[in-house]
Design brief:
alpha/beta; Urease, subunit C, domain 1; TIM Barrel; 16 helices; binds zinc ion; hydrolase activity, acting on carbon-nitrogen (but not peptide) bonds; hydrolase
């Protein structure tokens, strides 16, 4: 009489993010073999008998959040003594040279592994179940992505990872980066057990030649993956392209045949109206990182205009703050400030940018990003500790953007498997991970402080 399922979440407020954006005030989600088999109104117990039954007072079920752009290794900088050691950067280019490239060049395989462990734990604990990561580690390029894969698989979330191809030190290193990307794509392509798939990624248009761009794009076409690169984050990207090629970055990328719907452009802060039309024409996706743009002082991209043009924008964190609620809130606020117009971005649009739109940007929307029958059961269950106004189908988007935070996440499921539950990580021993990670990070910081030169990275002109 009752159909058997593995998990029945009952009597919850369900934010489906389906095409009609249905919110079910009191409903259920049924999961079998890692897949959502039913979503509906009322009491799911009238239809299903479940191996595991979950009913929590004032619970909200949302699709597992999707992060359109991160760098796990960015977490290694939090609180680092390096910031006191260097002369503070006064612009974006100095920021890269003095902070990011100094870190990149100091990374070991173990640092990469530790950063991905910490990042995956922080994601899982705050509701993000799917991500896209870019790794820059020029001294340990080959094999480096395996360490991200190992950590992510241990924690149990999932995502896409690529090595950030650059030629800032030598022409050759660009090809070694591509080699690592192709190796990892081939390794993970048909591996049903791994939670991490390879993609083709590059650092930025001002640190790579046309040949490396075209090769990466050709390989992304061959293996049918997305490909991603930072574009127009800082003015250096614009100046370099105009000086060397007589074109702005997106014009150059268009003219060499680089753009397509599977290209994810990260940032686009300095973009012009003409370039926005190019993005629209090629259906290029954007990863927007509001808090990273703030801390780097690079400016604010015209996200309201992207959306008016129908360009898909997913929210990322760029390796800064991993809590999706903080990133949603920053996105919601900053465009109102910069446009002096409180109408820019509704709460619903911001939630879309962290779920369905980010999933579309990563080309995984057929599997994740919404709660619909047939989709994989990546679910985030929120039980807010305090809700100061009524929680219902009319107020939920406002709460998601204005009042909830990562600590309100009660648990997350990935493909129907609990990764966090009762606000605890189930898959790894958190205390052991933290003790181990702190030791590794202290060694990394010591290594950075003992580098012969404060800014040993050389600026290379390709
Ligand atoms: Zn980035």
């Amino acid at each position: 009489m009752f159909e058997k399922v593995d998990l029945l979440i009952n009597n919850s407020l369900i934010v489906t993010m389906n095409s009609k954006r249905d919110v079910i005030p009191r409903g259920y989600v049924a999961v079998r073999d890692g897949v959502i088999v039913d979503v509906g109104f009322g009491d799911g117990r009238s239809k299903y008998s479940a191996e595991e039954y979950l009913e929590l007072r004032r619970s909200v079920v949302v699709p597992g959040f999707v992060c359109a752009h991160t760098h796990f290794y960015g977490l290694l900088l939090t609180g680092s003594p390096w910031f006191a050691f260097i002369e503070p950067p006064s612009d974006f280019q100095q920021n890269l040279q003095r902070i990011w490239w100094a870190l990149d060049e100091s990374l070991t395989y173990e640092d990469i592994y530790v950063s991905a462990l910490l990042g995956s734990i922080l994601f899982a604990r705050t509701g993000t179940t799917f991500f896209k990561d870019l790794l820059d580690a020029p001294n340990v390029t080959l094999g480096s992505l395996d360490y991200i894969e190992k950590a992510v698989n241990e924690v149990g979330i999932r995502g896409l990872a690529g090595f950030s191809v650059t030629q800032r030190r030598s022409i050759e290193e660009g090809y070694i980066g591509i080699q690592e990307n192709e190796r990892f794509v081939r390794k993970t392509l048909n591996d049903a057990k791994t939670n991490v798939k390879g993609i083709f990624t590059l650092h930025a248009s001002f640190t790579v030649t046309d040949d490396v761009l075209i090769k990466s794009k050709e390989l992304a076409d061959k293996y049918n993956t997305i490909y991603a690169m930072h574009v127009e984050e800082g003015l250096i990207d614009v100046y370099h392209n105009i000086e060397r090629y007589g074109k702005r970055p997106f014009e150059r990328l268009r003219d060499i045949g680089f753009l397509s719907p599977r290209f994810l452009a990260i940032h686009g802060v300095q973009i012009t109206e003409d370039e926005m039309k190019i993005l629209k024409h090629y259906d290029v996706k954007i990863a927007h990182n509001a808090m990273s743009n703030m801390i780097n002082g690079v400016g604010v991209p015209p996200v309201g205009k992207f959306l008016d043009l129908g360009i898909t924008v997913g929210i990322g964190n760029d390796g800064y703050v991993m809590d999706v609620f903080e990133n949603m809130r920053a996105t919601y606020l900053v465009h109102k400030v910069v446009n002096k117009d409180p109408r820019v971005l509704t709460p619903l649009k911001v939630v879309e940018m962290a779920t369905v739109d980010a999933a579309k940007a990563l080309n995984v929307y057929s599997r994740v990003g919404s709660i619909e029958v047939g989709k994989e059961a990546d679910l985030t269950i929120i039980v807010p500790e305090i809700v100061h106004t009524p929680l219902n189908e009319h107020t939920i988007y406002g709460h998601l953007v204005n009042s909830f935070n990562g600590k309100d996440v009660w648990g997350v499921l990935v493909k129907g498997r609990w990764v966090t539950k009762e606000r605890k990580v189930l898959t790894v021993d958190l205390e052991k991970v933290l003790d181990y990670a702190h030791k590794v990070i202290e060694r990394l910081w010591d290594r950075m402080l003992s580098m012969e030169s404060k800014y040993k990275v050389e600026w290379l002109k390709p």
